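Q: what sequence does this backbone want?
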């Protein structure tokens, strides 16, 4: 607790810096402005001023988890009985996702290993199409280069939540997602339900972290909020300013991960990420075009459901297209669960040699 309190002032200062970046991105009408603006601002400042943060600094995880939990609770509240009634209609797209995850994992592995020349564990876990935290933890245990792995995973999310909204905005001729002023709430919401949002977020974090559920920071509060909403026990609604604040904290915490990153390595990782994300989006587009006539779902909504990253932003884009964000979120949760399960199989079966039996990660 003492260590947490000591780290809090610096974390709050980083969040203030992130808020500045978020506001700039907001007025520039960027997609997911408060998260991406915060991330880029913190990454830029800490990159230009390497002495600003202590060596090997880590943003307080417990502090960050609360804000991720509130995002999860807000999304979970969108899971209603009407949404659950649509599950039979999305069975085929869920089945396609079951193919999408291992296929993109394999293609990404080839990109990072054959083209990027990353060692096998670094390439494999860098290519994970979801489960950011689980990919980093499992990759570290397998002897992957954690610095490269973390950057590739962050770049995956950044590129998806940046490029997809921009691409769809150009296709439709108007902004979509958060750039269109969309929020997870269709009507203006006051502060009266913040205690319920916070309580559900903390409860979900405490329960599901003990259960070791994959992506528990998001999924735990989401499931708790869905149960509370479906049972009618409480109303889970967060005002838009609170959601924006959560995005600032999450973006700022991610921005600190780029501190001290070698510029040449970052440029190389960015090029590989462009190739990886482009490949995954192309596979998702092909699957969406294939099953859209059969399912009756719109192709663009299916494309959003197959895009590997940014659950919150994908839900906001769905709102822009008059689609229920909870249906899109269900697809993304299934993608994350499938990915984490696949990472768990790789870890249990020890597909990679122990670090001592091969060369140092990142040397190849």
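A:
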């Amino acid at each position: 607790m003492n260590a947490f309190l000591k780290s809090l002032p610096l974390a709050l200062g980083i969040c203030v810096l992130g808020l500045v970046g978020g506001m700039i991105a907001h007025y520039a009408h960027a997609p997911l402005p408060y998260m991406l603006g915060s991330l880029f601002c913190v990454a830029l400042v800490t990159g230009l001023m390497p002495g600003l943060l202590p060596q090997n600094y880590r943003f307080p995880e417990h502090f960050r988890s609360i804000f991720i939990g509130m995002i999860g609770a807000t999304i979970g509240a969108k899971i209603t009985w009407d949404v659950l009634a649509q599950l039979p209609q999305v069975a085929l797209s869920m089945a396609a996702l079951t193919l999408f995850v291992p296929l993109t994992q394999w293609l990404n592995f080839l990109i990072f290993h054959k083209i990027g020349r990353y060692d096998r564990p670094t390439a494999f876990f860098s290519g994970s199409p979801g489960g950011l935290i689980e990919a980093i933890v499992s990759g570290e245990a397998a002897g992957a280069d954690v610095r490269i792995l973390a950057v590739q995973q962050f770049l995956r999310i950044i590129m998806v939540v940046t490029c997809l909204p921009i691409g769809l905005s150009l296709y439709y001729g108007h902004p979509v997602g958060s750039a269109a002023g969309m929020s997870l709430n269709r009507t203006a919401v006051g502060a009266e339900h913040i205690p319920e949002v916070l309580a559900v977020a903390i409860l979900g974090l405490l329960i599901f972290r003990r259960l070791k559920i994959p992506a528990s920071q998001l999924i735990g509060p989401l499931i708790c909020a869905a149960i509370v909403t479906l049972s009618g026990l409480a109303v889970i609604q967060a005002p838009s300013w609170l959601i924006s604040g959560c995005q600032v904290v999450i973006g700022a915490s991610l921005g600190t991960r780029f501190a001290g990153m070698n510029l040449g390595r970052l440029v190389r990782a960015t090029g590989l990420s462009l190739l990886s994300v482009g490949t995954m989006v192309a596979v998702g587009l092909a699957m969406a075009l294939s099953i859209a006539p059969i399912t009756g779902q719109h192709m663009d909504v299916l494309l959003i459901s197959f895009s590997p990253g940014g659950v919150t932003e994908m839900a906001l884009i769905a709102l822009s297209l008059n689609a229920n964000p909870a249906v899109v979120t269900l697809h993304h949760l299934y993608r994350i669960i499938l990915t984490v399960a696949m990472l768990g199989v790789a870890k249990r079966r020890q597909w990679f040699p122990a670090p001592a039996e091969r060369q140092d990660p990142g040397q190849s």
